[in-house]
Amino acid sequence: MPADSAASADSSISGTFVVIAHHPEDRYPGPCRPHASVHFQDLSRLWEAVAVSNRRGHSVLVVPVPELEPFVRGRWEHYEPGWVARDPSFTHAHVTALAPYLPQPTAADLDRVAAIADATEPFDYVLREVLAFPNGCLHVPPEPAEPFAALTHALWEAFPQCPPYQGEYDVAPHVTLDHSSATVTVATTRALLAGVLPAACRADRLELHWYEEGSCHVLADWKLGRLLR
Questions:
Q1: What gap in Å lies between CA 159 and CA 177, rounded to an integer?
Q2: Which string of b and e fits 104-143 if b means at least 16 CB within 10 Å?
Q3: Helix 107-119 with 146-158: angle, nearest 10 deg
Q4: Which of 85, 106, 107, 169 is the right S-S partner for 165, CB 3.0 to 4.6 Å?
């Protein structure tokens, strides 16, 4: 299972989304500091800081799934505690919209994401059945999956240099739960989620997450269908 930004920022909202910056001290253990939003013109400083301090990090566009957050976060804490976010807005449980995304998106790049989010109507879905991919990844697919796939294809069309999963896997929307082992199976995972699944959920936002050991956090988020209301 399984990124760090350091930038000075003022307290206003930039465009249709908020880019979240953390102080350098936030890379180290301790209470989370308050988030700060930054203007488009501050993006260059933000990404310069990311480039310097996060060479092993990467960005991902996701739809958060708070209904499964307690379970998924618990799995991260068990396997990879260094990847557990201290950012309280970060949702470990998610459906990937596009990964990997650009390492240093520009304001124009983020405008394109905002336009896609604005044109995507929020939608309801159900998480019902724990399944396993051939590689042992235990997951639960959303029903219906088509709206998630459509979002991925729209983002991919806007960013052809970012094929989903680097072109190694087909687009198959899902929430990752765990990985098969001698003691972790579809059956045991189903049992653990017996009181949670099926879960009625709603996709109403798109988020840009930064993943890096010691500093996973939300960089930006957009409400879906803002211009359709």
A1: 28
A2: ebeeebbebbbebbbebeebebebeebebeeeeebbbbbe
A3: 150
A4: 169
- Number of H helices and number of E strands within the chain? 5, 12
CATH architecture of 58-228: Alpha-Beta Complex (3.90)
- Distance, in Å, from the CA atom of 191 to the CA atom of 216, rounded to the nearest integer, reads 29
Task: Say what the pTM is.
Answer: 0.77
Domain parsing of the chain, residue ranges: 58-228
